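Figure 2 data, in text form.
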Amino acid sequence: SPITVQSNVFNLSGTVQYVTGRQNISMTLNGQPITNFTFDQNTTVITAPLTLVPGTNVVTTTGVNQDGTDSKSTTIIYQQRQVIQPPVVYFTNPNVNPYTSSQATFNLQANVLHVDGSQHISFKQNGIINQNFVYNNATQQFSSNVVLVPGQNVFEITGVNEAGTASASTIIIYQVVAPKPPVV
């Protein structure tokens, strides 16, 4: 004691000696009586199915006979399993796919959810890894000021965590506007 478990169901087992029967034993879980325990007088084994609460659980077993009383407590810590959500990636700017731009630079933005930081994000522009991005852990927002090449630009963001991988891609078409000199 203490013991740490990851399930809220726990079967406690122990021994109580020198009592004449179940009627000479009491048990509590976090101060509340446990009445569904069993006691085998031949083996002196006591068992109790417990339903634990998150955090610390204290089980106290008391035995009584004509010579006195004895109590022992044990601590069971129930740590709930943390469910890890798989990553989620989606673009917020541009918000349509494909997107056409007449500007050579673009502020690309996305949300990358359920990753532990920028080290768990891969960003590619036209198949080439691009390290020029910012990721805000608190808001889970990704942004990059990208320089477009004429024609089609393919952007891909991948997020990775223990639960899996997610990717999203978008296309920005950069249309170079031809200069229009004056015509008289």
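Caption note: The longest strand covers residues 55-65.
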